[in-house]
Amino acid sequence: MKPKILTSEFFNDDKEILDNLGLKSNISDWKCYDVLNVPGLIFIKNPFTSIGQKYWLKRCIADYTKKPNRLNIDAHRILGDGEDWWTLSNKNEINLKLRNQLRWATLGYHHDWDTKVYSETAKSEFPMDLSKLSKTIIKLLQFPDEFMAEAAIVNFYHPSSTLSGHTDHSEYNLSAPLLSISFGLSAIFLIGGHSLDDKPVAILLRSGDTIIMSKESRLCYHGVPKVLLPKNDQYFNYDNELEEPFKSYMQVTRININVRQVNNV
Ligand SMILES: O=C(O)CCC(=O)C(=O)O
Ligand SMILES: [Fe+2]
Q1: Which of 27, 35, 10 is closest to 136 using CA atoms?
Q2: SS3 for 209-262, per residue?
Q3: What is the largest CA-CA distance in the chain?
Q4: Over residues 127-136, mean pLDDT
Q5: 110, 224 in Cβ contact below 8 A?
Q6: What is the mean pLDDT of the chain?
Q7: What is the distance in A from the centroid of ligand 2 to the CA of 71?
Q8: Integer Cα distance of 243 and 54 in angstroms
Q9: Residue 182, SS3?
């Protein structure tokens, strides 16, 4: 990996913007790297403050899982009108099972897992804060074009979950970068080339670590073969402890937010 020097004027004036987004406001604390074997792949070592990490993981758990966003468990028709997954799963012991059933939530344009086609009719409002976060990170990395956050998948992994090798090619705009932010348990992320025969590189993703798939790497095969069990070094690089019930959930969970631009501008 080759360190990437950030030279933008942006952060001199806008420390407050970074701070409000839960990002480290001192840019010398940002550790960014070009992954040399995978052109266009950028790795940012946790750019979040501990307050920021807690803010975003709670947004993922308690807010982004609410209607009108879509969840994998919608198909099971467990949630009644006005009920949401997180509130219901914390109501009593029985509902702990429900807690573990959540695998993903889709925001903005909802990814259709069968047809893999985005449509104007399957769309909800994209969260402002997540859009701002994505735009800011892309701007900081000095991408020439403004990023439009239009679709996101929030993945929820358990220690035994895996994500098999795939490419993300449903977006109409494949020249815009894709942002992938992880919180909670660490995981091994594999990314190879445009063919499944290309040998992948392995990257350990810890809480807060962010990767950007741009240029050639945007269409590379990638997957998550392993989520790691909690060890002191890897989870809770949030300073203060999280409160319950978030704490116990995050002890067995990895969250990954995948943000995409769908359309050409
Ligand atoms: O969990 C990750 O790190 C990757 C997720 C991913 O590749 C996807 O949702 O398309
Ligand atoms: Fe992906």
Answers
A1: 10
A2: CEEEECHHHHHCCEEEEEECCCCCCCCCCCCCCCCCCHHHHHCCCEEEEEEECC
A3: 53
A4: 97
A5: no
A6: 91
A7: 17
A8: 10
A9: strand
Residue 12 clears pLDDT 80, i.e. is over it: no
pLDDT at res. 111: 80
What digits encode the pLDDT tens for the residues 74-87? 988 888 888 999 99
Handedness of CA 119, 124, 128, 134 (dihedral sign): negative
Q: pTM value?
A: 0.94
Q: For ligand 1, which residues put their CB under 6 angstroms from it?
A: 153, 155, 163, 168, 180, 182, 189, 222, 224, 256, 258
Atom of ligand 1 nearest to the CA of 157: 1
Q: Establish whether 110 is an annotated binding residue.
A: no
Residue with tokens 């952060």: 11
Q: Are strands 187-191 and 222-227 parallel, antiparallel or unpaired?
A: antiparallel
